[in-house]
Design brief:
Layout: H1 2-51, E1 55-58, E2 67-69, E3 74-79, E4 85-89, E5 96-99, E6 104-108, E7 114-119, E8 127-132
The protein binds copper (II) ion (CU).
Length: about 130
């Protein structure tokens, strides 16, 4: 009878320890996941705010609203469409950037202030305006 009791106690202890160990591991995993999520969210929130003034997003065959930038600024051009577009100035040689579908490119704005009309060489009906000042 005593032997059975001892065995039971040992088994109960083992189960209890097993439970404690597994729950500790889960807590650790949850803690790590939360920390990682927070770390990832912070830079993502910061990045668009910093680059907002120098970003041109092409979507639905449109350049969107006119953008105003400082001379000699680097603009990040994002093509959200599946087809290639270009950002080509009507002022010859001012800028001409081609971006494949789903890709990004960098456009350096002219150093001469002014209003630059541009279009897409593949879809000439797509037009936009870049204001440098
Ligand atoms: Cu185009």
């Amino acid at each position: 009878m005593k032997k059975v009791l001892l065995f039971c106690t040992a088994l109960c202890l083992a189960v209890a320890m097993g439970c404690t160990q597994s729950s500790t591991t889960e807590d650790d995993a949850t803690g790590t996941a939360t920390a990682t999520g927070t770390a990832t969210t912070t830079p993502t929130t910061t990045a668009p705010a910093d680059t907002q003034a120098a970003t041109l997003t092409i979507a639905d065959m449109s350049f969107g609203d006119a953008i105003t930038v400082a001379p000699g600024t680097q603009i990040s051009v994002t093509n959200d469409d599946s087809v290639e577009h270009s950002v080509t100035s009507r002022t010859e040689g001012a800028f001409d950037v081609h971006v494949d579908g789903g890709q990004q490119a960098t456009l350096t704005t002219p150093t001469e202030p002014g209003e630059y009309a541009f279009y897409c060489v593949y879809h000439p009906s797509m037009t936009g305006t870049l204001i440098v000042k």
